[in-house]
Every structure is written in C-alpha cells, then in structure tokens.
C-alpha cells in the first residue's frame, strides 16, 4: 500500500471513529422521560426536563398510560419515570421490577396519600370507612369516580367492585380525566351532593375541597396504612451505567409533600403560570433544594451543574 493510500485510509478511520463517538455521545445526552397526565407527576417531569436542558441534555417527554409506561421502560423506549406510586401500582410494576427490566431506583416522595375520599359533610354523616360506602349507595347513585382509563387506582376500584369487596358489587366505576373528575367533585361538594372519588396528596384538591380520606384500605386495595404511599423514581435497566451523571441527578431529586402542595396551589391560583413555570418559580424561591439536587452533578461539558441551572432559572424569570 502506498504512503498516500495509507494516509487516506488512516484519515477515513479517524473520521469514522469520530463520527461513531459523536453518535454515541449524542445518544447518551438524550433522556426520554415517561409521564402520565397527573398534575404532580407532570410538574416533576417538567422540572427534571428543565434541569436536564440547563445541563446540556436533549429531552423527550412521552405522556403515556401507566401500563404503557412500564412497557416503554422495559423496551428501552423510555429512560425514567417519576410517578411510581406504591403500593397501589404494585400489580402493574412489580413484575417489571422482578424481571430486572425496570429498576425501582429511589423514593422521591415519601408520605404521600392515594385512596378513596369523600366530601367532609359525607364523612360527618357517617361515610368514614370503605365498609360504609355501600350503606349510602342510593345517595352516591351507586358510582365511584376515578381518573383516566387504565390507571392503577381505577384498576383497584374495579377489582373491589368485581370481587364485591366491602359490598361494592352494585357500584359502577366512572372513569374520567383528573381535571374533569375534580371539577365534578368540587361542584358536588359545593352543592352538598354525595360522591366518593379517588383522592391523593400532594394535590391542590386538598386545599380547595373540604374532603376526608376514607379509612379501611387493605393490602389488597390501596395499602394497609389507609392509603399512605411512597412515590418512586424508576429507570430502565442499564440507565445508571449508561448515564451516571443524569442518574446522580435523579437519585438526588426528592420532593416533599409540602413542596408539591405549594406548587400545585400556586398553579391553581394562577393557571396561566403553567406546570413548568410553577415548579421553576418554587425552585427559584428555594435554592437550597436545587443545590442539593445538583450536588455531584455536572453539565454535559463537565462544568458545575448548579451554576448552569441557576443561570437557566435567571433566564426564565
């Protein structure tokens, strides 16, 4: 091989190597976040995407149902999910954890609540426990209100009905969106009409609806501690090894119930703010939180992550 031909071959080798390295780096710098259309999960997702953007990552948010979210994580079509409510999602998520295709990873919000609720005037009239629901079937029009179809909470309610647990066999599950369901609950509560619905905390519903969570949940329903829940961040298999810097950020990102309640309340008071801005506005007012989240985290270029995110926040307000 002539020296000139060797130089051409070597140049082609270098160019190919650099091209492949660029493609690999680009792939590692893109994070796909699975989300569901719940206010709290959406806020967490938007905040995480904003931080990632400030660090130099490209993000893609996919809004999916809960079952499809786990299929996406298992098939490497999504990298991370911030809305694994446990134990209520156990029937959907545990098989993916056991297979190793999805990693439970980190508890991002302990002390949450996820169970059936009712307006407080109903509780004061005797509807306090799961076993009381059937006693007031006529007043409730034999309906229990859930959120979107395929949601784990809906599945639990339907299972309770199908198995006639707590005498609920005559009831019908009414599936709807979070927004529509809560609008109906608020209207019913204001007009003293009876209703039982799927409630959770944190959420602004706890501030704007005079509501009471029912007791009586079991391990077969919303958990044995009256629906007290822990929300987890899940990642796909191999994500931590593939993206150690982003994985460090996700392991640091924890959300208190009070933090989320405050963000959601501000969003309710000013809907034009939007979920992303509501979350970022809270972080700008509470820098200690994002400084802890970004400890040990850098930009894609290797610079301090907290400095980059602070500059990003300043550009947003």
UniProtKB/TrEMBL annotation:
This is ABC transporter substrate-binding protein. It comes from Halodesulfovibrio aestuarii. Pfam families: OpuAC (PF04069). Residues 1-27 form the signal peptide. InterPro entries: ABC_choline_sub-bd, ABC_Gly_betaine_transp_sub-bd. Keywords: Signal. Residues 29-284 form the ABC-type glycine betaine transport system substrate-binding domain.
